[in-house]
């Protein structure tokens, strides 16, 4: 996306995401890790993304490290082997995907695709670096919330596979 067409996200545009996070089941939610003031600081660094039904967000093995916060819809996490595609988990609104590669600097462990129309907010590593430099407290709150989701997934055998 060229910078001349980029307009920063505002906190008003994130209200549906914040609401989804507040209403999501605790087991796979970002929870209440950020205050309204912190979301206002994070907002300009997020970019909206809408996926159509069955659209792939990222493929297993890809090296993109962007993090995606799910405002609405649900995403399927698939591991692909030589014989078939196996559904591992479904991740819904108020949660996150891409956290494994974001933190580990490794290739994606699974393919993630939309089950229907889904709205996400993406954060690239570059934009996160800018956020960290300019708003370190908000950046820390965000990674602690995302790290909390990752820790819950790794502690739960059924959800472990959703760590992407």
Textual characterization of the structure:
- The protein is α+β, with helices and mostly antiparallel strands.
- A hairpin with a 4-residue loop joins strand 4 and strand 5.
- Mean pLDDT is about 90; it is low at about 1-5.
- The chain has helices spanning about 15-25, 35-40, 100-105, 125-135, 135-155, 155-160; strands spanning about 45-50, 55-60, 65-70, 75-80, 85-90, 95, 110-115, 120-125.
- It is globular.
- The protein has one domain: Jelly Rolls, CATH 2.60.120.
- The two termini are about 25 Å apart.
- It contains six helices and eight strands; from the N terminus they run H-H-E-E-E-E-E-E-H-E-E-H-H-H.
- Helix 2 crosses helix 5 (about 135-155) and helix 4 (about 125-135) crosses helix 5.
- It comes from Comamonas flocculans.
Keyword list:
single chain; 164 residues; alpha+beta; Jelly Rolls; 25% strand; disordered N terminus
Write the layout of secondary structure elements.
Elements: H1 15-23, H2 36-42, E1 47-51, E2 56-58, E3 67-72, E4 74-80, E5 85-92, E6 96-97, H3 99-104, E7 111-114, E8 118-123, H4 125-134, H5 136-155, H6 157-160
Antiparallel strand pairs: 1-8, 2-7, 3-6, 3-8, 4-5, 4-7
Helix pairs in contact: 2-5, 4-5
What is the distance, rounded to the nearest whole angstrom, between the alpha carbons of the first and last residues?
A: 24 Å
The H/E string reads: HHEEEEEEHEEHHH
Radius of gyration: 15 Å
Determine the strand fraction and express it as a percent band. Answer: 25-35%
Secondary structural class: alpha+beta
Tally of domains: 1
Helical content band: 25-40%
Count of alpha and pi helical runs = 6
Query: How would you write the strand order of the largest sheet?
Result: 1-8-3-6
Main pleated sheet:
4 strands, antiparallel
Write out the CATH superfamily name: Jelly Rolls
Shape: globular
Domain Cyclic nucleotide-binding: 30-131
Protein name: Cyclic nucleotide-binding domain-containing protein
GO molecular function: DNA-binding transcription factor activity
């Amino acid at each position: 996306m060229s910078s001349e067409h980029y307009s920063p996200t505002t906190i008003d545009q994130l209200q549906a995401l914040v609401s989804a996070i507040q209403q999501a089941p605790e087991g796979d939610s970002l929870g209440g890790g950020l205050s309204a003031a912190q979301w206002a600081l994070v907002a300009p660094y997020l970019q909206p993304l809408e996926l159509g039904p069955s659209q792939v967000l990222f493929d297993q093995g890809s090296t993109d490290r962007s993090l995606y916060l799910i405002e609405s819809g649900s995403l399927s996490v698939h591991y692909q082997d030589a014989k078939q595609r196996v559904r591992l988990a479904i991740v819904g609104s108020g949660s996150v995907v891409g956290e494994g590669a974001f933190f580990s600097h490794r290739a994606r462990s699974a393919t993630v695709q939309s089950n229907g129309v889904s709205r996400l907010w993406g954060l690239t590593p570059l934009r996160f670096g800018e956020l960290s430099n300019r708003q370190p407290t908000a950046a820390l709150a965000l990674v602690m919330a995302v790290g909390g989701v990752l820790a819950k997934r790794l502690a739960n055998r059924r959800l472990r596979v959703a760590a992407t």
